[in-house]
Specification:
The longest helix has 26 residues. The chain has 4 domains: about 290 residues, Glycosidases (TIM Barrel, Alpha-Beta Barrel); about 80 residues, no CATH class; about 150 residues, Jelly Rolls (Sandwich); about 140 residues, Jelly Rolls. A hairpin with a 7-residue loop joins strand 17 and strand 18. It is about 20% helix and about 30% strand. By secondary structure, it is of the alpha+beta class. The chain is built from 13 helices and 36 strands. It binds beta-D-galactopyranose. The site of beta-D-galactopyranose (GAL) has 9 residues, from loops. Beta-D-galactopyranose (GAL) binds next to loops. It catalyses: Hydrolysis of terminal non-reducing beta-D-galactose residues in beta-D-galactosides. One of its GO terms (molecular function) is beta-galactosidase activity. It is an enzyme of class 3 (hydrolase). Belongs to the glycosyl hydrolase 35 family.
Length: about 750
């Protein structure tokens, strides 16, 4: 009895093991090891030159992922890179989410399925223009916590999250040695920029983070970016526009470029940055020319900051980044195509690049130089019997002159090099690619074509309290000004914004009552002064109401407020609405940054002196009524008491708008033009598209033509001057069905 039971168990076990093995092995790769030497990552025993494409999975929808990965592969990527997003995965402490846009495992598996490798930058601080740099806002409330330093509560929380991620990936067999795509991990992010602010504790924290990461035994190497003191087994890597001069802190580590900034992000009211592809290709060719081995595009696809995920303050909803694949998932030409050609040329050089330990340097002119990779390699002869020796040779010829072309002689042959360019010679003789010569795809502008089916959302024009061009189908609900629910509370004094909202909403209402005497009124008239609200420092947006009337608006990042206000005699309600527009994602001491008001807050100009508002009793209310009623969801919106919007309606300061429309047929991306709106948030069928704000970029500072030559900075080659920074908002969910209405769409804007 015992024996047969045991046998049955053994059979079951072996069957189970067999299935496991065949599924894993067939799906991704045969298990392989990843190590490194001074020259490169060593993948399955071979040094590799790798091109990596940065795609942040929650900045796209899961429906877009396969296409984005396929386009990266077709563009010549070997690796897909992403951060993880702690606040997306653990919105409430201890409650993890790995679903929808946050389905990390699915994303990594799709990458593995397509035969690409994965670089996962866990952080968990990530910066990334992402809300609070990826930190969950509840982390501020952990007693005694100080972020990113040698602080026990912080280290405990960080270790818990990083362990959770590594364990999850291991369980899902996603590491290379398990046959998965993950070849490399990152701990922390650019801590080197902050370390000095933390003194000795910062240094200790770096060591702790490194040991903690290594202790998780993930079985693949770890990097730390911009970390010159990265300890022993951790590879320090470069993030910059150019990394060709970069040397890691040990001769045993390879040169890796974790962030090649191929564009840049922007803020509401900012211009749109553009990095010319000739310069980008130059930077990449120079990197491989001078010994680099892995380059990751930050970003290959930037995507969208959905909902309230945008960091800040003030970063816009689009995270297009001027990346080779644009926000809509379309190829941005000529960037994508030119880089594809570059990747192909580098691929042709790979045998020589990995075989030679060091390049041979040759000066070709005052600002011209060559690096030649040459080696004898052993290849198997016929029938694997004899080993033959074959020589491989590849070269890069660079002209770093920003103005002039140069003709150089290299190994007896003459080459003409345009200014600020590199020619790639995979056989040390013939030019396969020059970074400044963009191929035939230059003129193809797919973005315009694909956006033509942009639906014209019925225009809402809100200027000087007028509403025009409103179609019959628009409905509206006014949002109350001030305290709207029993969930308010009263407190003697000023509370810090985030301590109250916990970032569950951008909005925090503060209400107090001010008494104005006859004598005050006379005093103001006689002296021709008006009372003034003065706040030492404020972020991000403040709206001031007196008795329900909007009196003033201020926006900025820790700016002083000096706002004249008008009072009648008697009691008045003074309402301050403080708003965040993306929490700080960069800098030291993030846990102390907070939002709302700092320093003194007072009303000046009263007969009996200033009124110290921080001493008064304030009633607080988090968020808007519509937000908490979930007015934007398919289930709840009907309950909101919508009324038809009339052409001559005078909008209140805060209004919810709703309309139905049919999305156009076809697969082309569709965007809303919200250029006529003010500031708010938009939803479609319950999906939060993001914040919108119709701020206009300065008129000047854009150049008509963009000269690719010379070192790039984000102020070079700006576009979009004098226009709203963002007026198109990508409708990712145009195919969501709504209660049997087929593809009928419902939009709600605030
Ligand atoms: C880097 C940072 C990234 C991102 C980038 C700018 O310094 O590591 O996360 O913020 O800057 O886009």
């Amino acid at each position: 009895m015992m024996v047969s039971e045991k046998r049955a168990f053994v059979q079951l076990l072996s069957l189970y093991l067999f299935i496991q093995f065949s599924v894993t092995a067939a799906k991704f790769f045969e298990p392989f090891n990843v190590t490194y030497d001074h020259r490169a990552l060593i993948i399955d025993g071979k040094r590799r030159m790798l091109i990596s494409a940065g795609i942040h999975y929650p900045r796209a929808t899961p429906q877009m992922w396969p296409d984005l990965i396929a386009k990266s592969k077709e563009g010549g990527a070997d690796v897909i890179e992403s951060y993880t997003f702690w606040n997306g995965h653990e919105p409430v402490r201890g409650q993890y989410t790995f679903e929808g846009r946050f389905d990390l495992v699915k994303f990594v598996k799709l990458v593995g399925d397509s035969g690409l490798y994965f670089l996962l930058r866990i952080g968990p601080y990530v910066c990334a223009e992402w809300n609070f740099g990826g930190f969950p806002v509840w982390l501020r409330d952990v007693p005694g916590i100080e972020f990113r330093t040698d602080n026990e509560p912080f280290k405990r929380e960080m270790q818990r999250f990083v362990t959770k991620i590594v364990d999850l990936l291991r369980e899902e067999k996603l590491f290379s040695w398990q046959g998965g795509p993950i070849i490399l991990l990152q701990i922390e992010n650019e801590y080197g920029n902050m370390e000095r602010s933390y003194g000795q504790k910062g240094k200790d924290y770096v060591k702790w983070a490194a040991n903690m990461a290594l202790g998780l035994r993930a079985g693949v190497p770890w990097v730390m970016c911009k970390q010159t003191d990265a300890p022993g087994d951790i590879i320090d890597t470069c993030n910059d526009y150019y990394c060709d001069g970069y040397k890691p802190n040990s001769p045993n580590k390879p040169t890796i470029w974790t962030e090649n900034w191929d564009g840049w992000y922007t803020s509401w009211g900012g211009r749109l940055p553009h990095r010319p592809v000739e310069d980008l290709a130059f930077a990449i060719a120079r990197f491989f020319q001078r010994g680099g081995s892995l380059m990751n595009y930050y970003m290959y696809f930037g995507g969208t900051n959905f909902g309230r995920t945008s960091g800040g303050p003030f970063y816009i909803t689009s995270y297009d980044y001027d990346a080779p694949i644009d926000e809509y998932g379309l190829l941005s030409e000529p960037k994508w195509g030119h880089l594809k050609d570059l990747h192909a040329a580098i691929r042709l050089c790979e045998p020589a690049l990995v075989a030679a330990d060091l390049p041979r340097y040759m000066k070709l002119g005052p600002k011209q130089e060559a690096h030649l990779y040459w080696a004898n390699i052993q290849t198997n002869g016929l029938n694997n019997t004899l080993s033959e020796s074959q020589s491989v040779c590849s070269a890069f010829l660079a002209n770093i002159d920003e103005h002039k072309a140069a003709t150089v002689t290299f190994r007896g042959k003459s080459y003409t090099l345009p200014p600020w360019s590199v020619s790639i010679l995979p056989d040390c003789r013939n030019t396969a690619f020059n970074t400044a010569k963009v191929g035939a795809q230059t003129s193809v502008k797919l973005v315009e074509h694909a956006l033509s089916p942009k639906i014209s959302v019925p225009e809402l024009v809100m200027t000087k309290n007028e509403v025009s061009s409103i179609p019959e189908s628009w409905m509206s609900v006014n949002e109350p000004i001030g305290i709207w629910s029993v969930n308010n509370f009263t407190f003697q004094g000023m509370l810090e914004h985030l301590n109250v909202t916990k970032d569950e909403s951008d909005y925090l209402w503060h209400m107090t009552r001010i008494y104005v005497s006859d004598e005050d009124i006379t005093f103001w008239e006689e002296n021709q002064v008006s009372p003034t609200l003065v706040i030492d420092s404020m972020r991000d947006v403040l709206r001031v109401f007196i008795n329900g009337q909007l009196t003033g608006s201020v926006s900025g990042h820790w700016v002083k407020v000096v706002q004249p206000v008008q009072f009648q005699q008697g009691y008045s309600d003074l309402i301050l609405l403080s708003q965040t527009v993306g929490l700080q994602n960069y800098g030291a001491f993030l846990e102390k940054d907070g939002a709302g008001f700092r320093g003194q807050i007072k009303l000046t100009g009263f007969k009996n002196g200033d009124i110290d508002l921080s001493k008064l009793s304030w009633t607080y209310q988090v968020g808007l009524k519509g937000e908490f009623q979930k007015i934007f969801t398919i289930e709840e919106n009907e309950k909101a008491g919508w009324t038809k919007l009339k052409r001559d309606a005078t909008p209140s300061t805060f209004t919810w708008y709703k309309a139905y429309f049919d999305a156009p047929d076809g697969k082309e991306p569709v965007a809303f033009d919200l250029g006529s709106m003010g500031k708010g948030q938009a939803w479609v069928n319950g999906h939060h598209i993001g914040r919108y704000w119709n701020l206009v970029a300065p008129k000047d500072g854009c150049s008509k033509s963009c000269d690719y030559r010379g070192a790039y900075n984000p102020n070079k080659c700006m576009t979009n001057c004098g226009k709203p920074t963002q007026s198109w908002y990508y409708l990712h969910w145009k195919r969501t069905t709504y209660r049997g209405h087929g593809y009928r769409q419902q939009t709600i804007y605030l």
